[in-house]
Amino acid sequence: MEFKLINEQTIMIYFENQIDSKTFAKVQHVLQYIKEKQHRAITEIIPSYRAIMLHVDINISTLNEVLNDLCLEQLDLNSIDETQLKSKTIRLPVLYGGEYGQDIEEVAAYNNLTTEQVEKIHSSNKYLIYMLGFMPGFPFLGGLDTKIHTPRRKEPRTKIEAGSVGIANNQTGLYPKQSPGGWQIIGRTPINVFDINREPMCLYEAGDIIQFYSVDLETYRQIETEQTQSDFNIEKWVKFDYEH
């Protein structure tokens, strides 16, 4: 680990300069350690692929005092077993292609595949959520098969529909709300994955696993209809597998 004081109120904790599950496990371990400390001067903790940002109320403690209190240097990160991280797997339905995945043909052509092969490859993998960003509930997912790596669109769209599943280089992700964006859209889930009126608001968090499964148009519309009803049973369509 490396510590840097970014400004008068911010500490950055850096790990290895690489994006992989082993580095992520270290980030999660230190994140949980800091949370359990409940340091009263730390006002916000923001993890990412390979770093943790701490916002500090310097009216309570200085940055160096916070670092001394945390005693991070005592942690043994070499013994962390990434397979022991607590997580859950969330299986989400996706309608691939057509008007719901308008870039799947471009992804297929770029990789010399058929659209059916893209769909099969994408829905076969399990994806680790490294972080949530640029809007609430947007998961940056690792584990995309190299066979379907595809660059971002040269011209971003001004509007991408909520639920859209896309590819950008070596990552895949999911737009929880309507938004501009430059990812290659290959499908869409009818599930509202982020809802401020629901507890929890987001169906997943960093460290969880997402797996997509393919549905047809009839099923997609059925889910849409059921979701508008007050007695909607989300677990009929979204499968949660808790692992420890």
From TrEMBL:
Tree of life domain: Bacteria
Domain Carboxyltransferase: from-to ranges: 1-204
E.C. no: 3.5.2.9
SUPFAM superfamilies in UniProt: Cyclophilin-like, PH0987 N-terminal domain-like
Protein's organism: Staphylococcus gallinarum
Entry-linked Gene3D superfamilies: 3.30.1360.40, Cyclophilin-like (2.40.100.10)
Gene it is expressed from: pxpB
Name recorded for this polypeptide: 5-oxoprolinase subunit PxpB
Alphabetical list of Pfam families matching this protein: CT_C_D
Keyword line: ATP-binding, Hydrolase, Nucleotide-binding
SMART domains named among the record's database cross-references: AHS1 (SM00796)
GO molecular function, one term: ATP binding
